Amino acid sequence: MDSSTDDNNKETFFETSEFEINDIEFFLENLQYTRTGEYAENSIHMMCPIQQGNHEYSVPIDSSKKYKKILNCFFSSLDENENFDIGNFQNLIEANQFSEESIPSFGFEYKAMDCMVHNALVTNRKLSFLFSGKEQTHLGLNIATIVLNRTISTLQSTSLLLKSGYSGDAKCLLRVALEQIAYAYQVLGINDEKVIKNLKKTLSIKNLKELIPEAGVLYGYLTDFIHNNNNIWSEFLELEEDTNHNVSKMYIKVRSGESSRETTMIVVRVVEAYLAVAYHISKNFEHNNKYNIKELIFTQCELAKMIRARYYKKNHESEPRETV
After folding, report:
1. How does DSSP assign 249-313, residue by residue?
2. By CB distance 3.0 to 4.6 Å, which of 52, 105, 134, 163 could disulfide with 48?
3. Cα gap 253→259, rounded to integer Å
4. For residues 160 and 49, what is the distance between their CA atoms, to the nearest angstrom?
5. Domain ranges of the chain
6. How far apart are alpha carbons 174 and 198 in whole angstroms?
7. Whether 124 contacts 152, CB under 8 Å
């Protein structure tokens, strides 16, 4: 990506580009996180839920198969009163009765989503460092940074919902995240309290289209889940034909693995919008390049494009441009 990009062509700055990934084994397949350092305590979004019998627990998404197998054997050795049968546990371990297929795992899409949410967290921390110990007199810049800070927990909550299969609820949260990001972009250049108070927040999504061209369409799609509009009912309802009695039965799909997997790419795109706004905030601190935020964001956005290209290539789909 050309690091000389400026405000005059910002509307194409974060647009989708084509990538050649014919024979590349994308590294996120074997992603491992370091459990130490300044971001270790903020990895809640990496947790994934697992159910074994009557027991439910969570493990980090990048846990090794051996680690998950031991946990699987452990919870399989608890009875309904939570008494632990150590003999059964030893037998399960020694007999190697759990095949790899029985060990809970999440695919590329979920790891990629968590990686991008983590990137947003890292960028947010870098921005916070720029503000740390300095008195900022620019009101809009302060508000924009605070709003982006709040958005991190929204993105992390979305990740947890998707790994639990609750794609509809996740899309409601994604709409909130997109609103927060759009408002941050709308306000960051304004230093007048009266003007900020009188801003029409409904125009914020329109402004965000300067960075993410399909922001309006994406916002409309996510809003349908907030208002439960009938054009999204098909994502929750499932008909089953009963040929013997010539009737149809209707079921409500509370959880959907397929829909959740597809929604991970919306998360990646929303994170790109987050990074785009963070980039424009960081331009106010170009004199302080200690944290290399500009270079960091360029790299993260290139990664996001690679992730989306890999996903749509893997699923033999064309990436949505103006529609979701």
Report:
1. EEEE-S--HHHHHHHHHHHHHHHHHHHHHHHHHHGGGTT--TT-HHHHHHHHHHHHHHHHHHHHH
2. 163
3. 10
4. 8
5. 7-30+106-226+259-314, 50-102
6. 25
7. yes
Q: How far apart are CA 119 and CA 85, in angstroms?
A: 42
How many angstroms separate the Cα of 30 from the Cα of each of 20, 74, 108, 163, 308? 21, 25, 9, 18, 17
- Beta strand 47-52 with 55-60 is antiparallel
Q: Measured in whole angstroms, how far is the alpha carbon of residue 107 from the centre of its chain?
A: 14
User: What is the 8-class DSSP label of residue 207?
Assistant: H
* Half-sphere exposure in the Cβ direction for 106 (13 Å, CA): 29
Reduced to 3 states, what is the DSSP secondary structure of residue 192? coil
Q: How far apart are CA 244 and CA 254, in angstroms?
A: 27
pLDDT digits (tens, 9 = 90+) for 127-176: 887 776 566 668 898 899 999 999 999 999 999 899 888 899 999 999 99
Q: Which sign, positive or negative, has the C-alpha torsion 316, 237, 259, 173?
A: positive
Q: Which residues pair with 239 in a beta bridge?
A: 250
Alpha-carbon span 301 to 303, nearest angstrom: 5
Angle between helices 293-314 and 108-131 (to 10 degrees): 170
DSSP, collapsed to helix, strand or coil, labels residue 170 as helix
Long-range pairs of 170-176 with CB within 8 A, sequence gap ≥ 24: 170/260, 170/263, 170/267, 171/221, 171/222, 171/225, 171/263, 171/266, 172/222, 172/225, 172/226, 174/222, 174/263, 174/266, 174/267, 174/270, 175/219, 175/222, 175/223, 175/225, 175/226
For the record, the structure tokens of 116 come out as 């991008």
CA 130/CA 284 separation, integer angstroms: 10
Neighbours of 233 (CB within 10 A): 11
pLDDT in tens, 88-127: 888 887 776 555 555 556 778 888 898 899 899 989 988 8
